[in-house]
């Protein structure tokens, strides 16, 4: 990585933050004192009504109101102010039938229009399938066998042979993803605002609904009511690479617009980034992948918002912040699969065209499986909350065509129980569940005796690695926190006011207590998080505004730093231009 060499050459830029919150969050602390965790769902109504605060607005939702004086000239989506609405009026994101031409990046490949065919009648409300329907079991491509894969290939071929005016055609199915991420679909009652299903709490539910109908359309065309979508389980060693059948040029599953150097048997790098090819053995890549999975699924995803993504309501600026798995492996595997010689890394490497690759659906099948794994085996297993109970999430809705070509309105509430949707996952192991990363000795964790820190003010452009001493809230010093309390809360590093170049792939990494971060091997414990965006359609010269949250509790425990007053955070740019509004550490409870 370029940044590694520049830093070891002594150009390491160091910063210092004297308060645990770099910006105006001191007010936050005053308003909601220690006992009231701002993200707690049980936060008392009296505190809420006294302060007029939304439980998510403070530390969960990216309090941009106070945090981003830097937001400025770049031609915003003119939604400033929408965020400041107060009161408890319900604001789910409701998809309207109105669909306009979305914003595609320069050099996009046709078609340039991705709205679905107009429906002759009003959408019908979703109803659950007959509970007597056979339970579809989605299994990994490497497990299901050739016969099943031939069925999937036939389903794709049948979809490809439907006229493009048919919403069940492959052409239209591919366009669904485009319509929901380029601002084509509009919000009901807000024709000026698009629906964006990435970088927020809509990510998992939307893609589940999308796959649900895609799978039923496939089953219908095959005349096989029990047909289940195969999944690309890149998180287990046997699945880490594009399955052979997708690389067969004679197969309907083949897509010529993929990265040629990643054709099988290349082992996938779940931490991949363009220009970031690592010189590692397959065994090293596999080990690293398992550690990335552990971080994204276990230690980094201890609260619903950390896993599912940040709240996004009608009128809000889009892309408030994704959950761990959306950053990686979701984004990273999209980019790894796309053709890096194309400006937008089509097809898989960019939102508007990703659905054109038949590998997209098994890829998202695996993402959906990880949601089930997290929900049922990790969150519930640790007696933590798994779903939001916020009506704005539950009542958000999407419009999709079903297997009978009827337009259906489906809500987030409708997709929370896979059993009711009559599918499940089978035959896939979770080898990463025990892949807890190791700590790295000799990386100069704390300032004392090391390089001195200079004082620099936020916001800061991340042109070089930046090391910041972030104070922990006083609560960390209360060693007598009960075990019960500790089990329910998470110490979270909030990186707010992030402005990333929308016209580029942007990545930076977050290290904890490792001022000599370049000594940390891939997958090391000190690497606590990765920010990675795909190109944002049609936004050259504009910025993606978002935030990031990094869970710290287990990392600090492993580093033996639970008693420290501060945490040393190093932000390391890998690619693209990005500005950081500020950092703070908060305790969250959901
Ligand atoms: C669909 O559901 C909404 C919300 O529950 C309800 O208001 C509406 O009447 C329903 N429409 C139909 C046609 O059942
Ligand atoms: C890549 O790795 C191999 C084997 O570990 C090593 O011999 C080689 O020097 C490395 N190449 C580069 C460019 O780092
Ligand atoms: Cu996606």
What does this structure look like?
This protein has 590 residues and is an alpha+beta fold. It has a domain at 448-588: Jelly Rolls, CATH 2.60.120. 26% of the residues lie in helices and 17% in strands. It has helices spanning 2-11, 26-31, 45-51, 64-67, 141-144, 146-161, 170-179, 203-222, 282-299, 304-308, 324-337, 351-354, 360-379, 391-394, 483-488, 553-558; strands spanning 13-14, 95-99, 124-125, 136-138, 185-187, 190-194, 397-401, 407-411, 423-425, 460-461, 466-471, 489-501, 506-512, 527-533, 543-551, 566-575, 578-580, 582-589. The strands form 5 sheets. The protein has a 5-stranded mixed sheet. Helix 6 (146-161) packs across helix 8. The protein is globular and about 65 Å long. It binds 2-acetamido-2-deoxy-beta-D-glucopyranose (NAG) (2 copies) and copper (II) ion (CU). Residues 198-215, 357-368 form the Tyrosinase copper-binding domain.
């Amino acid at each position: 990585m370029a940044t590694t060499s520049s830093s070891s050459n002594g150009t390491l830029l160091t910063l210092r933050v004297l308060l645990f919150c770099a910006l105006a969050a001191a007010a936050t602390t005053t308003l909601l004192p220690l006992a009231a965790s701002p993200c707690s769902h049980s936060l008392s109504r009296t505190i809420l009504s006294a302060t007029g605060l939304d439980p998510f607005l403070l530390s969960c939702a990216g309090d941009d109101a106070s945090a981003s004086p830097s937001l400025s000239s770049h031609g915003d989506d003119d939604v400033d102010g929408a965020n400041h609405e107060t009161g408890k009026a319900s604001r789910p994101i409701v998809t309207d039938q109105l669909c306009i031409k979305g914003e595609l990046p320069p050099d996009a490949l046709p078609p340039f229009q991705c709205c679905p065919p107009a429906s002759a009648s009003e959408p019908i409300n979703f109803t659950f399938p007959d509970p007597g329907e056979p339970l579809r079991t989605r299994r990994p491509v490497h497990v299901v066998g050739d016969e099943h894969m031939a069925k999937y290939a036939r389903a794709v071929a049948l979809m490809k042979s439907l006229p493009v005016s048919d919403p069940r055609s492959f052409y239209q199915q591919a366009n669904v993803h485009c319509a929901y991420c380029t601002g084509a679909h509009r919000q009901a009652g807000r024709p000026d605002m698009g629906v964006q299903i990435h970088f927020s709490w809509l990510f998992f539910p939307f893609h589940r609904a999308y796959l649900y109908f895609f799978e039923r359309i496939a089953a219908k065309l095959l005349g096989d009511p029990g047909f289940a979508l195969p999944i690309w389980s890149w998180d287990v060693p046997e699945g880490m690479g594009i399955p052979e059948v997708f690389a067969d040029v004679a197969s309907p599953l083949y897509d010529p617009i993929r990265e040629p150097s990643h054709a099988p048997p290349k082992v996938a790098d779940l931490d991949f980034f363009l220009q970031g090819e690592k010189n590692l053995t397959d065994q090293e890549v596999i080990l690293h992948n398992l550690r990335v999975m552990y971080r994204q699924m276990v230690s980094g995803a201890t609260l619903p918002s950390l896993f599912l993504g940040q709240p996004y309501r009608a009128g809000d600026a889009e892309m408030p912040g994704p959950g761990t798995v959306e950053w990686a492996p979701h984004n990273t595997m999209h980019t790894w699969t796309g053709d890096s010689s194309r400006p937008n890394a089509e097809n898989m490497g960019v939102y508007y065209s990703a659905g054109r690759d038949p590998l997209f659906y098994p890829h998202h099948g695996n993402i959906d499986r990880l949601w089930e794994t997290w929900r049922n085996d990790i969150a519930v297993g640790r007696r933590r909350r798994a779903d939001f109970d916020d009506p704005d999430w539950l009542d958000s809705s999407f419009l999709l065509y079903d297997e009978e070509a009827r337009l259906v309105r489906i809500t987030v509430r409708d997709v929370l129980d896979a059993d009711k949707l009559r599918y499940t996952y089978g035959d896939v192991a979770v080898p990463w569940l025990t892949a807890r990363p190791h700590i790295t000795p000799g990386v100069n964790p704390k300032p004392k005796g090391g390089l001195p820190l200079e004082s620099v003010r936020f916001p800061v452009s991340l042109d070089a690695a930046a090391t910041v001493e972030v104070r922990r809230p006083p609560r960390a010093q209360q060693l007598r926190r009960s075990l019960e309390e500790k089990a329910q809360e998470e110490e979270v590093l909030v990186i707010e006011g992030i402005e990333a170049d929308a016209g580029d792939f942007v990545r930076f990494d977050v290290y904890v207590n490792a001022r000599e971060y370049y000594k940390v091997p891939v997958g090391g414990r000190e690497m606590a998080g990765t920010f990675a965006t795909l190109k944002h359609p049609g936004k050259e010269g504009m910025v993606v505004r978002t935030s990031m949250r990094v869970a710290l509790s287990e990392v600090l425990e492993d580093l033996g730093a639970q008693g420290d007053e501060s945490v040393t955070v190093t932000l390391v740019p890998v690619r693209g231009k990005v500005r950081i509004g500020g950092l703070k550490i908060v305790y969250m409870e959901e």
